Amino acid sequence: MGDDANEATKATQRYRRVALQAGVRISTIDPELEPHTGRPYFRTSEDTCGNVSRGGAYVESDELVSPGRRVLVEIDLPEGAQVRAVGRVRWTKTAIESASAKAHFGMGIEFVGAEDGELDRLERVLEDVRRAHGEPAREDSPTPTGRRAPSRA
Predict the structure, then answer these.
(1) Cβ atoms within 10 Å of 119's Cβ, excluding its own
(2) How far apart are CA 38 and CA 143, in angstroms?
(3) How many Å separate Cα 115 from the centre of its chain?
């Protein structure tokens, strides 16, 4: 069933993902309540991004964040660039096989907002990574300018 779910997810993704091992900081936006004191607190964790697209990211973490939670995502991109976006955890999975010895959870985060130009800048960086790996532009994926790639007839 897991493979069917992964295939269904891939079929509904609007943007092409790029495999990218990068540092990422995840901070909850809405407070949680400490169970013993009832005091509100926010979580922040240093995690690893496994892949990313203009529409979201897959993150490996040692902390479970529940689906539906809003988070601030700060991804360290190649060459020192950083992208910040507001996201929503869409799904989680436990006991993952991870490149990071500390990660026990995986989560899919959909980007739901960002400052002007942030996601365009992210897409330009991802296009550079694709080109460096010899991947052609896909006809049905938006280019960094927002236009569709020309058809190859």
Answers:
(1) 18
(2) 47
(3) 16
What integer is the mean pLDDT of 99-121? 86
**What backbone phi and psi angles, to 5 degrees, belong to 118?**
-60, -50
Amino acid making up residue 35: P
8-state DSSP, 48: E
What structural domains and CATH numbers belong to the chain?
12-132 (2.40.10.220)
Q: Tokens 């993902």 — which residue?
A: 17
Q: How far apart are CA 16 and CA 54, in angstroms?
A: 8
Per-residue pLDDT tens for 111-120?
A: 999 999 999 9
Cα–Cα distance for residue pair 66/46, rounded to 1 Å: 17
Strand (E) or helix (H) holding 83 = strand 82-94
Task: Report pTM.
Answer: 0.76
Smallest CA-to-CA distance from 22 within 73, 61, 78 is with 78
